[in-house]
Amino acid sequence: MTPLLELHGIHKRFGAVQALSDVRFEVRAGEVMALVGDNGAGKSTLIKIISGIYRADGGTIRWQGREVAIATPNDSTTLGIATVYQDLALCDNLDVVANLFLGREVAIPRGPLGVMDEVAMERRAVEVLRRLSVKIPSVRIPIASLSGGQRQSVAVARSVMGDNKVVMLDEPTAALGMAQTHEVLELIKRLRGQGLGVVLISHNLANVYEVADRITVLRLGRHVGTYEARSTTREQLIGFMTGAVPGGDELPTVSAGVTGARTEPA
Ligand SMILES: Nc1ncnc2c1ncn2[C@@H]1O[C@H](COP(=O)(O)OP(=O)(O)OP(=O)(O)O)[C@@H](O)[C@H]1O
Ligand SMILES: [Mg+2]
Asked: pTM to 2 decimals?
């Protein structure tokens, strides 16, 4: 099965800092791929390259098997990649419907110019939130009156309003309590269930293990390895993240052949 998204040989330098060196990464449809690594490992930089905020200095990006250039956020969005950043970028004073449709309001085809079809938007908002089992008191209340978990859920729901195939979440549970974290993790599972590829960045390994199918580890801007979550222990993972365990693709836990793993004997 061709992955939705594949990156190979990605390099990115900021002045004297080599943020990423020869990094590879992939996401398949219907999987949660976690991206882990210590502070400064290069996770956000990689996500920003995929979302078109930064341009890689080198490397290739393939979308559904075809090489593509992602030079702007619009290129990424057009492919069907949505990114939810930690600051969420929701408008506190607008209601849930308005936030879900921000930038893609539904115009009445024959109506006066600039008039949005509020009824259609509300119907669609309710439908999407129901499909994702997001529970909020009303779609007509301002974002400011929602809990942190509900806001995060609205932000995630917004990312699937278009015809997106990959959703990337940078630390979606960092500011949330236990119940709210649970809500967001359940939402991530539902996105996977609907065939999306989900990229999850998290420092919380318990969260990672709860939802991830595979885990890519970065350390000091380098790709340590990509591992099946079910066959990698938390201790091994911490070892890979800190460098205490060298990692690498020769380990049996690696999904060989998929991550560009070396198959010849070392
Ligand atoms: N815009 C920038 N300008 C200069 N250096 C940058 C920039 N963005 C990132 N870096 C550097 O690149 C490296 C990787 O940073 P990045 O934010 O990708 O790490 P991260 O894995 O997301 O870390 P964290 O877990 O703390 O969020 C760091 O050394 C960081 O200081
Ligand atoms: Mg980061």
From this structure: 0.85
